[in-house]
Write a structure and sequence with these properties.
Blueprint (H helix, E strand, L loop, with lengths): L4 E5 L4 E5 L6 E6 L10 H19 L3 E8 L5 E3 L3 E4 H9 L3 H18 L7 E4 L4 H13 L3 E4 L2 E4 L36 E6 L17 E3 L1 H13 L3 E7 L3 H16 L4 E7 L2 E3 L2 E2 L10 H6 L4 H9 L7 E3 L1 H23 L7 H16 L4 H13 L5 H15 L10 H4 L3 H15 L3 H13 L2 E6 L3 E6 L2
Parallel strand pairs: 3-4, 3-12, 4-7, 12-13, 14-16
Antiparallel strand pairs: 1-2, 5-6, 8-9, 9-10, 10-11, 14-15, 17-18
Helix pairs in contact: 2-3, 4-5, 5-6, 8-9, 10-11, 10-12, 11-12, 14-15
Bound molecules: adenosine monophosphate and zinc ion.
């Protein structure tokens, strides 16, 4: 039986009990990257949140189908379909073709996510490989009277969709997105958005396809509705993205999908808050931002950044600073040192019940809206308690790492200690037990037995010991 899950739903603005519609397998869609530049560490924070969600759902005992798109066409500098085409800007900047740009940054995105131990979604769908599906989708919207042609582009008529604005709780009249750039005079309503661009907008766009409305390419929003429906069917259990997507992109996805289906579409909307840099939004289009590589160049490990992300709740803004990253790094390095210490002293204990209690407490924080900071605190409590043996502490860490994904299972003993045969380590553990029981005679006998096997044991403070080869 899967465990109970509770998540904050942006649609209801409350933490609600979550269950997949079929009771077994969660159908989850996450908006993927627009591949026109490196992902910045803010983008990566959102993918860490989605990865924690993915792994928590699996930990709770549900199946999961996780779908993510790759936006390799159609995203303009303003989410409301105004301004320049992001892919074209990059192609000009780097004197490359748009597809070369797309594949280059898609590859880099997956290198970064792999380094952060983010699982690859079950389905990764490129927009450029689903154009026919999008055209079919737009045709249905047109047949149902939700789309209109104006100056060569096909627009979604938001006035025809009653629920427009329901996710961001705004009236349609408040949803004017033209403030940053010129208003598109072809729109009937300011909140209308493009379903299909024809060459009238960007004549030099190389990626174009034939369509009933002329040669052109899809708008950004239609990509997600089409691909989510193709891979997940008519009901999506969870749809994720960053908070910036709430007022435009996700409103538009809802409008298109529910107009197409004639019924509700997504059950839970979950959004990751922004990572801020010196209290300013980190923007991929502004050109100056921090990448994972830039952190690695400065000597940080991807695990340090992942640990930093886990320290804040996904619905709180996080402020990035190198001081904060250093603190995360130090804590992570303390954790790895602790693991080495536990592995050096593998002591078993009759403490299965205590271990289950710690695991249940840990899971509970994750199952109640992904409270990673509290789950980390439980982990440190488990490491500090004397109610758990070293072996149980290691078991707890392996469990925690199913979601934390800090590569804790890869932490090895230093090389010289690895070579020590297990029988010698067992003798040393027996000796430690004897010492704790103040059985000095047995302790001395075991020291001799260890020496006979060619090893010297040195006692360290706090019940620890060090083994080395005898000369
Ligand atoms: P993009 O590639 O620009 O479409 O963004 C990829 C993902 O990163 C989306 O889910 C955005 O909502 C999210 N995102 C963008 N900027 C930030 C930020 N500063 N902090 C956290 N997430 C962000
Ligand atoms: Zn999307």
């Amino acid at each position: 039986m899967p465990q109970d899950l509770f998540f904050y739903n942006t649609m209801t603005r409350t933490i609600d009990r979550f269950e997949p519609s079929d009771g077994k397998t969660v159908r989850m869609y996450c908006c993927g990257p627009t591949v026109y530049n490196y992902a910045h560490i803010g983008n990566l924070r959102t993918y860490v949140f989605e990865d924690v969600l993915d792994k928590t759902i699996r930990l709770a005992g549900y199946g999961l189908k996780h779908v993510m798109n790759i936006t390799d066409v159609g995203h303009l500098t303003s989410d409301a379909d105004e301004g320049e085409d992001k892919m074209l800007i990059a192609a000009k900047r780097e004197s490359l073709g748009v597809l070369e740009i797309a594949r280059k940054y898609e590859g880099k995105f997956f290198e970064d996510t792999k380094a952060l131990n983010i699982s690859r979604p079950d389905v990764v769908a490129r927009a450029t490989e689903h154009i026919k599906d999008m055209i079919e989708f737009v045709k249905v919207l047109e047949e149902k009277g939700f789309a209109y042609l104006s100056n060569g582009n096909v627009y979604f008529d938001t006035a025809k969709f009653q629920g427009y604005g329901k996710l961001s709780k705004q009236d349609r009249s408040d949803l004017k997105h033209g403030a940053r750039v010129e208003e598109d005079a072809s729109k009937r309503n300011p909140s209308d958005f493009v379903l299909w661009f024809t060459s009238s907008k960007f004549e030099n766009q190389i990626l174009q396809w034939d369509s009933p409305w002329g040669r052109g390419y899809p708008g950004w929003h239609i990509e997600c509705s089409t691909m989510a429906m193709k891979y997940l069917g008519e009901n999506v259990d969870i749809h994720c993205g960053g908070v910036d997507h709430i007022p435009v992109h996700h409103e538009n996805e809802i409008a298109q999908s529910e107009a197409y289906l004639g019924h509700d579409w997504v059950h839970f909307w979950m959004h990751g808050e922004f990572l801020q840099l010196k209290n300013a939004k980190m923007s991929k289009s502004s050109g100056s931002f921090l990448t994972l590589d830039s952190l690695i160049e400065k000597g940080y490990k991807p695990e340090h950044y992942r640990y930093f992300c886990l320290q804040s709740h996904y619905r709180s803004q996080a402020n990035f600073s190198f001081e904060a990253l250093d603190a995360a790094k130090n804590t992570y390095e303390n954790l790895t040192a602790k693991i080495v210490e536990l592995k050096q002293n593998p002591i078993k204990g009759d403490d299965e019940n205590v271990l289950s209690e710690y695991i249940a407490k840990f899971d509970d924080f994750l199952f109640h809206d992904l409270k990673t900071p509290q789950a980390l605190a439980v982990m440190w409590d488990a490491l500090k308690t004397d109610k758990l043996s070293n072996d149980s502490k290691l078991k707890f860490l392996l469990h925690a790492d199913e979601v934390f994904s800090l590569k804790l299972d890869e932490i090895e003993l230093p090389k010289n200690q690895e070579e020590i045969p297990s029988e010698v380590r067992e003798l040393a553990n027996e000796r430690l037990k004897a010492r704790l029981e103040k059985n000095w005679q047995k302790s001395d006998e075991l020291r001799d037995a260890i020496l006979e096997k060619g090893y010297v044991i040195k006692d360290l403070p706090g019940g620890k010991f060090e083994l080395s080869k005898a000369n």
